[in-house]
Specification:
The chain is mostly helical. It contains 4 helices and 2 strands. Strands 1-2 form a two-stranded antiparallel ribbon.
């Protein structure tokens, strides 16, 4: 996976470690929210898919009924029914308007039909002399077919929109899960390792400094002791009138006794 063995190029400091941890917390929360959004969109997607399947299954029967009703109307009223219908209709009685539904932040277009009545009864009187009942039945059947087509168009549009939104959301979820979070985790591990190494280096440096100071103190103490001993030997040599070696032998012979007893 990309990002599993990669990390960000940063300066390993305590401040940067805090920044990386905050970014990891944000990435984790974002991943959880996007995962929930993807699940909600998937549930809505499957619901719409079931409705589309049901609508398409009923579409065949509806269109067949509409086609048969048109054939019956032509058979009863004759071919002149087309001109009668066209002359009686001034405006569309069935219209479509668009709305939007919000599903987990995704706006889905929705089409709905409504009957716009202008108060005219011309359409109801069409075929009054011949085949009026069949014409009205044909009109009702075609209205039902149009309503089903509008519903199917709304479902298909929402289906495509949801499909694209789910793909985009899943890409973001996968990017956070497989690239962003592993990189941040690797970066945090790297910074912690570097900080631990710096701490060990500081500890080793302090130990070396303490050892150096201890050796310096011991050297100074040895020098002071040697100087005191030389002063004492010179004092003994002057008092006894002997050489330094003889004074040294006298001092060794005195041992743990008080050196002043030599005098």
């Amino acid at each position: 996976m990309a990002g599993q063995n990669q990390r960000l190029t940063v300066v390993p400091t305590v401040t940067m470690l805090g920044v990386m941890k905050q970014r990891l917390v944000g990435a984790t929360r974002g991943h959880a929210l996007l995962k929930k959004k993807s699940d909600a969109l998937t549930v809505q997607f499957r619901s719409i898919l079931k409705k589309i399947v049901t609508a398409k299954e009923s579409m065949g029967d509806t269109m067949r009924s509409a086609s048969f009703s048109l054939a019956e109307a032509k058979y009863v009223a004759g071919d002149g029914v087309k001109h009668s219908v066209r002359e009686s209709v001034k405006a569309a009685s069935l219209r479509v308007r668009s709305k939007q539904d919000n599903v987990a932040g995704v706006k889905l277009p929705r089409f709905e039909h409504f009957h716009a009545s202008d108060g005219s009864t011309a359409g109801e009187l069409t075929g009054l002399a011949r085949g009026g009942q069949q014409i009205q039945a044909c009109r009702a059947t075609h209205l039902k077919a149009i309503e089903l087509l509008v519903e199917l168009a709304s479902l298909q549009t929402s289906f495509l929109t949801l499909d694209e939104a789910i793909k985009t959301t899943n890409r973001r979820v996968n990017a956070l899960e497989n690239v962003v979070k592993p990189r941040l985790e690797n970066t945090i591990t790297y910074i912690k390792g570097e900080l631990d190494e710096l701490e060990r280096e500081d500890f080793f440096r302090l130990k070396k400094i303490q050892g150096y100071k201890k050796r310096e103190i011991e050297r100074q103490m040895a020098a002071a002791k040697s100087f005191a001993q030389e002063q004492q030997l010179e004092k003994i040599a002057l008092k006894k009138g002997v050489s330094m070696n003889a004074a040294h032998n006298l001092l060794l012979a005195a041992g743990d006794r008080d050196p002043d007893l030599i005098f």
